[in-house]
Amino acid sequence: MQADAPSIYELLQELLPPPPPPVERKGLFAEQHFPTGSWGSALRSFSQVIFINHPLSGALLLLAFLIQSPWMALLAVLGMATANAVSKLLNLGQSLRDQGIHGFNGALVGCAAAVLSDSSSVKDAGLIAVLVAFGGGLTTLMLELWRRRFHRRGDPPALTLPFCLITWGLVALVSPRMPDTIETVKVAASPTAAQVLVIGLPHSFGQVFLCSDLVSGWLVLLAVAIASPIAAALGACGALAGMLTALASGTDTAAVAQGLWGYNGVLVAIALGGIFHVPGRRTLVLALLGAGLASLLQALQGRLMGNLPALTLSFVITTWMMQRLAGRTLPALIPVALHAVVTPEEHRKRFLVASELLGSFRRNLRQRVDGMAPLVGREQPQIQLNSQMQHLFDQLDQNRDGHLSLNELRNALVSGGGSNKTHLRRTSSLNNQLLATMASMDLNGDGHIDSAEFSKLIQRLQRLREGEERLLLYLMPVDANGNDRLDQDELARLLKSIGQAPLTAGEQALVFRNQQQSLSWHDFVDRLLLS
Known about the structure:
By secondary structure, the protein is an all-alpha fold.
């Protein structure tokens, strides 16, 4: 999607100095960007199982595996390594591998094999290791096939389905040990519901990785909390909802205390409440309903599948069902692509940026429809021009009359270098764009652009530039057909996601000019800047 003429937003950015480097926040929960590499992708492969992109969390999870058993840690590393190796061998995408996307199903296969298989002899252990390596690599192939089949935005993600299918296949090939993990629970002879829930909470986090050890469960919970307190809280709520549903259905209390009826709720709540949807009251309700439903589906699965382990199939099915339900009954909940955000906190920031910029856009549209100048000055406190902005205005105001003309602005935008051909193409294509820009900048309608009006536009440009990445990553899921354009229905859904009513006929005429049916992303960003 490369237009012949750059957008006004892109051209105006050439007038500004480079943005300052982001201020690094200190502390454990600050937004961080970690270096990539083999170790980073390996640790992320563990943490992505619980929708966490944090190497320290991955290290804590590896420690949890070691405490559960060194055999589990070894097989988890083996499954993850072969999954990533197949990804690299087939050149399936460096970024996906770096973020741990291709490795987390393989890691789970290793964890399951350590629990479900009999490795009492060297021969059996060798066979299991070979099968885990084979299964881990196969999960990557399944993920890629799924991606090619379901490649549109809004299509269901594979989640941990490859892990479930591969593990069941391995169970069918070898005789599973099927350990009685309920025996490890230390509860009172007649535990109360509160006791069951207290013990079951950390166990539910551990059982995501088939860890029955209580210390391992606490480490998994800590691994989530370090990267995202919101995700940890959502997971805890989901585990409680799943366990309460199981207790209400008459499930054995020892099994509930072991976390066997809470781990799917952990995954469902984090996925629906903070990863696929922005954290909020409505998504919390969606997450809790999903966690309860996952528990019911797990019970149904047990009746239908006999001795096969439940694994995370009910999490996968519930997440698919609730996303489809939310899309139909709660269209204001906009799902994002799997792993498009690092944490629920980051998802929340993107939503707030989109809400602020789109809310300002809508207010200005209403003012223009009413024949009034946009109230740009009310978006933030009035400030005097700083020396840098005043210097920029003086540079553009070549005749020093205190106002910008169309020619002065055009000369500044096409003087940034390049070939004569590029210069001529830019000059010939700018007039209509600049006329709209000048009309937007002329807030008092006197036909002149003074320094205060110029300042307001530059302030707006700076705010849009600061939030551009988060804004576009929030907007992209609205483009359901994946054509990189925004039509009227998609814009209405986007506005509804931030609590705004659909555009009126007059507002639509301003946004979709000259009978346009849709806008490119560049055109829409220009509307955000100039409307």
